[in-house]
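haha ok so turns out i had the wrong file open the whole time. this is the CORRECT one, sorry everyone. sequence first:
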Amino acid sequence: MHEGHRKRMYEKLKSGDKLYDHELLEILLFNAYARKNTNPIAHALLDTFVTIPAVLNASVEELCAVEGVGESVALYLRTVGECTKNIRSASDAAAVLYSYEDFKNYAALRLKFKTQEILELYCLEKNGRLKKTFTYTSNENSKVEVSSDKIAQVLATVKPYGLFIAHNHLSGDSRPSVNDDRFTMEVQLLCSMNNVQLYDHCIYASDKNIYSYFADGKLDEIKRKYSFKSIIDEKFKNDK
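then structure:
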């Protein structure tokens, strides 16, 4: 009987039908109770704590005081609660990048403890809100390569107002390589052609060792040389 009921509840969830709080909690508890009817326990939890957020934020001791809830189930619910907290706080912290310092801190948070080279693109709206993030890796410790075609596709589909680039160096040296410079030039040219602002390219080696093309003045130099307008102007100048 329980298996048929669970199947019906899962079908209801999959179809997007309206689910009441006790039904959502009942489904969540399916993973905590292999074969037990979780409906009475869901009701008991809501009778005690009133809302699902209150259930997930309750202490292990408070949860165990509810009839039918043992320590393992209480720990399961606490784990779900902690996960939702982390998701919410991470989303809030990274939602808007107001300054270059915000960007460096965000890049450091994402690239810290990585065991292979990672390159990330952060697509921003005009107000600094993070629109979409793209992560690339070649599954090698010493390098990561992203083709210009992939960058062009990102710019064409996401249509961001601005773009930040970040990648890590596992060597401990954040200074840009020749390939880093070339990649920055290619991205700048693509951004120029798509009317996207390239804000910075940061290279993370450690929290205290982060190179910034913007802070070093190198990005301004690249922008002067590698923009759609400057290339057209240079061509007309040479053709005269």
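The longest strand covers residues 197-206.
again sry for the mixup
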